[in-house]
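This week, look over our next protein:
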Amino acid sequence: MVKYFCNTTDIKSTWDHVVSAFWQRYPNPFSTHVLTEDVVYREVTTDHRLLSRRLLMKTNRLPRWAERFFPAGMSRYVYIVEDSIVDPVNRSLTTYTWNLNHTTLMSVEERCVFLDSAELPATTQLKREAWISSSIFGFSKPIQEFGLARFKSNQVKAMKGLEYALSNLQGLGIRLSVGVTLRSLVNKWHYEDQGSQQTGRRLQTYRGRAVRRNGQTGQGEELQRSTAQERRPNGCSGTQ
């Protein structure tokens, strides 16, 4: 049995601003549990879509009853893979995330779609879905209930973090088109990749795990397919 969450939100900001803020939302005071973020793969396709794969490291305090499921010395950090596709033609940003480790205790998969609103001016529609499961025999149901409650709490913080990034952009008076944003992101990634060998070594192990999850080796086509395909049933018809 899997716990399902669905939520739709109207963000009172243009899609261009939301996409720009999405890449600049960390660090922020509402997401202190997000410790690091690193780009594993990035490509602009011939049809001008930006494909990205990032590795994030997060931490969350466990309730006392959950400590029994963690062997002594096991890392409390959670590594998250985030695949994303920015489509400036259809004005959509799609993200798909999942945890790499601690999957026996709890697996959380999330899909977000940011769309430029056709009905409301200067508004971006966000649809967020999540699937939470556990393989701990006899305790899967309470663990899933706990995971759902924590996910709801964290997604509220995530929205506040995005709004924080948006307010920073608007406060600076930045006016960015998505085309400029895509070019600057790719240039920034190449610059950081050249100058950070230590980060590259740290990513090597987890890049292999992330790619194996999709059965291929870091190619743009495969990343696009793994992110965009309907990996879960689409049952969201409104706010839950």
